[in-house]
Amino acid sequence: MGKSLVQKILEPHIVEGKWDPGHEIAITIDQTLTQDATGTMAYLQFEAMDVPKVRTELSVSYVDHNTVQIGFENADDHRYLQTVAARYGIIYSRAGNGICHQVHLERFGRPGKTLLGSDSHTPTAGGVGMIGIGAGGLDVAVAMAGGPFYLACPRVIRINLHGQLQPWVAAKDVVLKVLEIFTTKGNVGCVFEYGGEGAKTLTVPMRATITNMGAECGVTTSVFPSDDVTLAFLKAQGRGEQWVPLSADEDAAYERVVDIDLGAIVPLAAYPHSPGNIKTVQELAGLEVNQVCLGSCTNSSYQDLMTVAYVLKGKAAHPGVSLVIAPGSRQVLQNITLNGGLGDLIAAGARIAESACGFCIGNSQSPQTDAVSIRTSNRNFLGRSGTKSAQVYLTSPETAAAAVVTGKLTDPRDLEQMGIHYPDIQMPDRFFLDDSMFIYPAEQPQDVEIYRGPNIGEPPSSEPLPETIDGVVTIKVGDKVTTDHIIPAGDKMKYRSNVPKYSEFLFEVVDPTFHDRAKAIQAAGQHNIIVAGASYGQGSSREHAALCPMYVGVKAVIAKSLERIHNANLINFGIVPLTFANEADYEGIEQGDELEIPNIRRVIEQGGKLVVKNRTKGTEFEVVCNLSERERESILAGGTLAYMKAQSA
Ligand code: MIC
Ligand code: SF4
Fold it and tell me: So what's the pLDDT on residue 641?
């Protein structure tokens, strides 16, 4: 039996377990990336591991999320990150150099290698034939220290692309189609492997748009083969020698095979408030638009922005539309500057934002009350834009550009009737390259003094698992609750290195009283318990969605199902992830109910049934705690850091 592309890349990296989908494996990590919002905590944890230098082939620390710098906090964190990088052998990508995933794809992504990143969109690197996986900061810290990364050996889903995209239909529409097919839940433990004749018609940045948003389906990663298209991209980046050909065997077997005809795809949009809510742009056409934001790690490549520049050339943004453009990287910005595209965008009235996450994470450009905002980014969760009442639609740059011209959500194919013809922008043979915003590790690392401003706090430590969990259902939430719901980013993100302060914003968009109620329960000596529906913890990799609940005394989450990265983060911080043995029991619990999980420690240690007693309702129900041997040890110790400390002692 032949091998899939995923198996071919992962198998040589396996250091524990074997290729057996669904079972835990440990893999070596060749490269890591961090971004500033998750990076400060990751490096604090890395420092605690007492390793003189990173043990990966390459580690890069990007500053792209918190670049707004209102107050000293962000700048202090940047300085901390820069000194840590210099000291421990890490490349530092300065604020302004671009969004981690875009820059990593351009300058460091290599076919056949593994990349672990403290950001959920690390699979963007799959566009260049690399296995990129998002994880919590602690897991990335472990990888930097030379430890393996544990994951369920993936179930590989093959997506065969046929034909060719029609004019005005984009890679974004392909991934929105994938989201329509697979939705945002039920894909934990899977990987999307793309192939087929149609894949050859997509450039690497287009492929990266598709692998980027696989994260929204909840898959572990997505990957394209490494072929002539990959070679052309690497050559254009001056890295042709790093190319290796990689593809699946003809007779490889898959968990599931899905065929998509590129030629049949039409412009699509994800409507509020989930990337999985898909309609055709035609169905939504006519909706008045207040804001258009172009950028993010999904759609801000050279080709994306040159296409928009072409559409807007000689035109002015509709008076009702505020147009914001954040080029994905400084490389993109420099290249569209040299080609004149930037001038056309500025002339059209674009507000050029920094090459950073910016609007995508809601730390700037929050739209007006009840606004309709068209964005080329990947997430439209409630409140993520910074305006809770805003209606955010996710589209391709082509559809976004059409809205700029007309002031309404418009099928970009209709631009032809307005005399605007499809530009079919090609990738250049050679990009203008300038790596001067990378700072390379110090030659005398021992001389580097690590800067710690007042915003940097110690990561809080957790307690070993008690014999019995005895507490209160502090909050009961429904299906598809994201980590943005659990702990918001936006203007609160500057407190990432200050856990007590950041914790005040737990569940802010869902129930702002959560923090105070949780602290009161904790002060009364009881545990806090979260009850959730299906697919709890979608979205961002932010470990603060576990770390902050731990800090306020959350000891267990009982959900219908949990998403991969969040589940791992809960274990890392000693919060027991439980699922209902019988989903119907979810209905029998209310917020405020007092629950007891007797002998949970003993059951996790020795096995047996886990029964939850609902003292308020006088009922009982069974829950499941699915842990590998290693996860079991971590949970018992009170989290992964505690476990590692105990081991090294
Ligand atoms: C996101 O897109 O939600 C983020 C902000 O990039 C997060 C990381 C974070 O919360 O810092 C992610 O995708 O993991
Ligand atoms: Fe940044 Fe948005 Fe990409 Fe997250 S999704 S890395 S916030 S651009």
Answer: 86
406 C-beta closer than 6 A to ligand 2: no
Regarding the beta carbon of 361 and ligand 2, being less than 6 Å apart is answered yes
357 alpha carbon – ligand 2 mean position (Å):
5
Neighbours of 444 (CB within 10 A): 8
Q: How many CA atoms lie within 13 A of 61 on its CB side?
A: 32
Q: What is the pLDDT of residues 428-480, one digit of tens each?
A: 999 999 999 999 999 999 999 999 999 888 778 888 999 999 999 999 999 99
Q: What is the CA radius of gyration of the chain?
A: 24
Q: Which ligand is nearest to the CA of 563?
A: 1
Measure 51 CA to ligand 1 centroid, in angstroms: 27
Per-residue confidence (pLDDT) for residue 459, from 0 to 100: 77
CA distance 302 to 203: 11
Specify the pTM.
0.98
Structure tokens at 3: 């091998």
Ligand 1 atom nearest to 379, measured from its CA: 2
Substitution candidate for ligand 1 out of 103, 375, 540, 548 with most atoms within 8 A of CB: 540
Residues of the chain with pLDDT under 50: none
What is residue 391's predicted lDDT score, i.e. its pLDDT?
Answer: 98
Which 8-state DSSP code applies to residue 524? Answer: T
Based on DSSP, count helices (H) and strands (E) in the chain, helices before strands: 21, 27
What is the reported pLDDT for 283?
98
41: left (phi over 0), alpha (psi -120 to 50) or beta: alpha
- As beta bridge partners, residue 193 has 158, 223
How many Å apart are CA 1 and CA 54, to the nearest integer? 38
Q: Please provide residue 31's backbone torsions phi and psi, each rounded to the nearest 5 degrees.
A: -135, 150
